[in-house]
Structure prediction request, 679 residues.
Amino acid sequence: MTAPRTLYDKIWDSHLVDMDDQGNGLLYIDLHLVHEVTSPQAFAGLRAAGRKVRRPDRTVAVPDHNVPTTPDRAKFVFEDEEARIQVETLDRNAKEFGVNYYPMNDINQGIVHIVGPEQGFTQPGMTIVCGDSHTSTHGAFGALAFGIGTSEVEHVLATQTLQQRRAKNMRIDIDGTLGPGVTAKDIILAIIGKIGTAGGTGYVMEYTGSAIRSLSMEGRMTVCNMSIEAGARAGLIAPDEVTFEYVKGKPHAPKGAAWEQALAWWKTLPSDPGAHYDMEVFLKAEEIAPHVTWGTSPQDVAPITGAVPNPAEIKDETKRAALERALNYMGLKPGEKLEDVAIQRVFIGSCTNGRIEDLRAAAAIAKGRKVAPGVQAMVVPGSGLVKHQAEEEGLDKIFIEAGFEWREPGCSMCLAMNADKLKPEERCASTSNRNFEGRQGPRGRTHLMSPAMAAAAAVTGKLADVRKFI
Amino acid sequence: MDKFTTLTAVAAPLPMINVDTDMIIPKQFLKTVERTGLAKGLFFELRQDKDGNPVPDFFMNQPQYKGAQILVAGENFGCGSSREHAPWALLDYGIRCVIAPSFADIFYNNCFQNGILPIKLPQEDVDKLMDDAKRGQNARITVDLEKQEIRGPDGGVIKFEIDAFKKHCLLNGLDNIGLTLEKKAKIDSFEAKQRGTQPWLYAAAGRTA
Ligand code: SF4
Prediction:
């Protein structure tokens, strides 16, 4: 009998093409996702070397980072020329190399990490990479999924493999029942607050426990999405009936006899009892409150009932300087109550929280209320299919009536590469994943939170406790 | 890719923790289809103030760090996005070696793909090198990859660890794709085996625009 293995161990073992005696492995890649910003140089490299894409059938490309979210994009109107060139370059590369492709004005277009699962390309037990750090999202299906750089994108295109060293196993167990208004986003923010942005470095984090099991696939994707914000190589959740139910019937999911065969294999994937983890972290679901960030790193996070911390209380000089810099950047004072902080912008969207369930949660708060005076709020669905579904359910009307803007799908103000960005010193309640300096526009100020919390902030004009609205 | 053997150069100090890739190169510089010309975006938001004036105590604005090829920084350097534009921008500016107590995974890997040597050292060694770096042109540092040591301006020697395979590739400027393609037979046989055990991964016709 073999020793008990974790989910990660099993995926690693079943994808190892080669391993030298120094521990350098060569891993086979089952699914390669590609977007317009991190791929042009990789395709150019292939072309220069006269190489082909080894598995075009396992390569899926979609433009998302740069695309406009305004209606005139149907006519291919771009605010800036360079962005248009990047999208057109992807169009050309996808065609030339024969990979699966969803062009900008296709209904199936969207953020790459939303499109993969939606189209059934993302499946349990796979190895999945993309030139994008939030590839960790796909770990929600029990797939080993992580971000790579452009040179590695070229390597995967050419060889369908990646040079990798084995990571360590970490288990994060969240047991219990979430309180009202507390969501998957609050779980992951609480975890990052606890272990820090480098807490997961060198690890693959597997999320376990009853609070995780009770999440929908959308919620699980939100948790795994931000694993990278804790520094982890990848996040994982063991596949179960919820996973299988989601995958079943998707366009690229296995069908008929192949489905039964796949299912039988997927069911062998969960970690064996007694499998070894190099580190374990435990949280109680009942103790997690709705969270918001106050600083310029996702670890700068607190329950909404909390206050801005005081640098004077920090001994370590570098850490104190970092905190002072963050508060100065964010325009916040030590001790200021988070619920007193006024916002001017709201962004609901991104690969963290741009799925249908997220829009439903935000709409439930927005319904029958109005965006506060002086606040500009926008909703950007994660994909064309999410947008379509939301419109079927009438969510667009709820948002528009409340005074939100309803946009075309894309990354949008998550990273502000297109025209959607904050002005200097504008403060935003955002459902995205990074609050780094300048992330949503030069000198813009970002507070990360769940979709319901962002909607509550929109109608209040301040950071707000969603529990007061339900 | 250029080889990395021994480098003697001025080291620039960046005494900050959690320097993320958005700080190294903000997104407005990512709209390129090239790998070069990115130095213009390096530390764009750190090196100038809100009115666009140079921040006087940032190393890029100080004459004593002109031509610096080594960067000494705080823990968790390179966290955030996977953008390889971060090492491309460093390289375009001339940086060939980054020294820090710890690095984010993806950034660390991306460095090796571009002939940049990232060196992890204990905090006290980094503190020592940070002091050296603060002396600008008066303190040139030598990084010797073959011997895995850093020789300071005052004769001190600091040893560092590095993965043997990564070292080999850097020393010889080896292209990873070429190395992997030598294993083509192994990749072929992996696929043949997987086609038997997981046929559904080979069945889809794919949907091509
Ligand atoms: S939504 Fe944001 S985090 Fe997600 S892929 Fe797009 S830019 Fe990256």
